[in-house]
Amino acid sequence: MKKTQIIMGMPITIEVTDKEVTVKNLESIFDYFKSIDQRFSTYKETSEITKVNNGLPESKWSSDMKLVMKLCEETKTLTNGFFNIHHNGKLDPSGLVKGWSIFNASNKLSKMNFKNYYIEAGGDIQVNGKFSLKTPWTVGIRNPFNIKEIIKIVTLSSEGIATSGTYIRGQHIYNPKLKNKIVDSIQSLTVIAKNVYEADRYATAAFAMGKTGIEFLDSTPGLEGYMVDSNMVATLTTGFNKYVLRNA
């Protein structure tokens, strides 16, 4: 069963290939994403993150808000300051919340005893098991210079994959160490990790590093990456090819 809804301003797709799945199961996951949107959307005047930015004291933050802020600080440390949620005097944890919420949603499916599923939100993906008895989950990586073209196809079984880039949303990623300088040396950077939470937060930070981001990924255990720079040159980490199905 496969369903898609627009939540958090992007398409979210859930596909479960276990026979026992029901529409109600998928709706419960979509409801979870809606609750995340209500809490963390920086575009909603009524969201908790907006209230935080308007002065809501930490003593009144929800447990989810406290956890996300703690994880953001942890990620900032792990990425040598390149992951930074402070923008123009406001807090914006979006670079972590999406992957974190997808991972939480996948855990909810696992607790429902589903073993074969795929969750995608805005291009960030968590998979588990297989698409079918004999077919693994496959994910295509787009050419940032021609988004209709797939330049790599990877196979995943229990991992997460996330891509940071400017080819769809435009320039929205900055180097926090250079007075928020726009990153224009690379066009896309894809990260595969043990789960989509790890992939998403490190993809955001590594992209902010520019061309050195791929070196950071290569030196960080548990991460693999694929970068396309502004000269149309692709660079991949040492172990990335183990996931590659074929060149498209």
Please outline what is shown here.
With 248 residues, this protein is of the alpha+beta class. It is built from 6 helices and 15 strands.
Structural overview:
This protein is an alpha+beta fold. It has a single domain, classed as T-fold (Roll). Helices cover about 30% and strands about 30% of the residues. β13 (about 225-230) and β14 (about 235) form a beta hairpin. α1 runs antiparallel to α4 and α4 runs antiparallel to α5 (about 195-210). The mean pLDDT is about 95.
Short descriptors:
3-stranded antiparallel β-sheet; T-fold; alpha+beta; globular; 6 helices; 15 strands; 248 residues; 8-stranded antiparallel β-sheet
Tally of separate domains: 1
**How would you classify the helix and strand content by structural class?**
alpha+beta
CATH topology name: T-fold
Cα shape: globular
- The percentage helix is 25-40%
Q: What does the secondary structure layout of this molecule look like, with pairings?
A:
Blueprint: E1 2-7, E2 10-16, H1 23-40, H2 48-53, H3 63-78, E3 86-87, E4 90-91, H4 94-111, E5 117-121, E6 124-128, E7 137-143, E8 146-156, E9 160-165, E10 174-175, E11 181-182, E12 186-193, H5 196-208, H6 213-218, E13 224-229, E14 234-236, E15 244-246
Antiparallel strand pairs: 1-2, 2-5, 3-4, 5-6, 6-9, 7-8, 8-15, 9-12, 10-11, 12-13, 13-14
Helix pairs in contact: 1-4, 4-5
